[in-house]
Amino acid sequence: MPHASDTPPSGAMRALGRGRPHRAGDLLPRFSRWHAARANRWEWLHLQRGELVLQWLGEAGSLARSLGAGQSLWLAPGHRWRIARLSEDAEFSLQVFADDSVIADAPQPERARLLEAAPRLEAADAAALAQALADLAPGERRLLRTPFDPAPCVREALADSGGTLTWHPLGADAGTHAALLVRCAEPVDLLDYLGRDHALIEAALVGALGGDAGRERWLRSLLARHLRIEEQDIFPAFLAAGGDPATVRSLQREHELLRGHLDNIADPASHRGLLLVLEAHDEKEEQLVYPDFLARIGSRAAALTAAIIARGPG
Questions:
Q1: pLDDT tens track for 201-221
Q2: What domains does the chain contain, in order, with CATH numbers?
Q3: pTM attached to this predicted model
Q4: How far apart (Å, rounded) are the C-alpha atoms in residues 280 and 165?
Q5: What is the mean pLDDT of residues 18-47?
Q6: What angle do CA 252, 257, 262 make, to 5 degrees?
């Protein structure tokens, strides 16, 4: 599924409520932060006046598209977008639609694309991996498999990349280590990295709920690593910078819910619970918690981001 479409994606689109107008002068903060329509929800953005630039968090970096007066876009579920720039006279409306041809409580198949469509990279030893990392061009990603622990070699490449190389370790099984490698054109900030981590957890979940034991192992490793990043790195620094303790307590309760549903993933009731908690939790973090956290820690964000990206598997 594309991240956006110029035409309605299906004939089963049902408007949910009314679209409201938005203007540059009173733009809601959420529009400048990464967010996504969830489940079977599409968003239809129509620009009445002015100009704006939309940005998507793609598989290997950001994509952008400019809109002029009179133009519209259908924004797909599961694809994170934000308004990167708009003119002072810009005025647009945003309408949410349900696609009744899609099951609302099912994981969205396009989320699996981050894993399924990534070109494979096999590296037999550290020298081969170092060369492959050096050859990885901006905008490229690779699903890495090695018969050895790639972490030392990857961390060295991360340190030399100026922040443009990232990895998401997927864990090890039967002596084979797996990770997603991404080379971006610009240094990756913490919001982008954790947003992609959320998307990868969802991608692994698609396979796990389809009965793929390998994807379920990746899901467990990805989720364990992500929750540990938040609990050991994000939350303490957030609180030390004056963040709201009640927010952290709420997120930690949701972490326990996620762990509980994952422990019972064979139960259909836990399927739905895991999906619903994960979607709401990710949205809250990307819309509210992460931006607040970054604003509070200021110049310390770059060093913390580098340390988080360098973490090993869950």
A1: 988 988 888 888 999 999 999
A2: 4-104 (2.60.120.10), 112-309 (no CATH)
A3: 0.76
A4: 29
A5: 82
A6: 125
